[in-house]
Amino acid sequence: MTVESTTTSSEAPPTPISTETQVTEQKPSESVSLLNEDSPKTESDGTKTEKTEADDKSKPAGAPEKYSDFKLPDGFELQTETMTEATGVFKELGLTQVQAQKLVDFYGKTALASAEAPIKHWQDTQKAWRDEIKADPEIGGKLGDVKATIGKAYALLGDAKLVQSFRDAMDLTGAGNNPAFVKTMFKLASMLTEGGHVAGSTPKPKPGSAAEAMYPNLAKG
Question: How many other C-beta atoms lie within 10 A of the C-beta of residue 104?
Fold first, then answer.
């Protein structure tokens, strides 16, 4: 009887206190999660879900204390104020020297293309106008006479400085190559110089003539 009583006692289930203790130890600590939201979170097996310290070492170094001089495309310059502002943005973004240089290269390429586009358009327009004048059936075959006639009209002004300024303006704007402008100047010059030659002194235009209409002050000389 004594043996049976001992065996029954040894097979008794664990006490409730022991069971509650095991459950309590397996619960995650909610207070730790709330106080350390920036800490690496762990899975149930205890492994980190964020990047390890070794991964962090593979990241770019970030913005340097001071950027070295950037390489700029040929023919491209940046003002000191602009570069200072740009490097401030690079630092704010945490860009390395290499990353910042890539942005400088891209900006330089696009800025040069934008600046060259209107110049190329102007040059192409000038060439198209010159080609149109040479092919014009009215004046294309006698450009020498056209220039000489317009030159005589310039002489009628009696103001070499004004004439030179006018010529400079045509070169600057390209108007001197515009077919409509050239043909208009030629017709006006022909009306002024037709039937005579340019004398050393400034001739007085006839009353009611085209010259008087264009240059009324000539009659007062």
Answer: 20
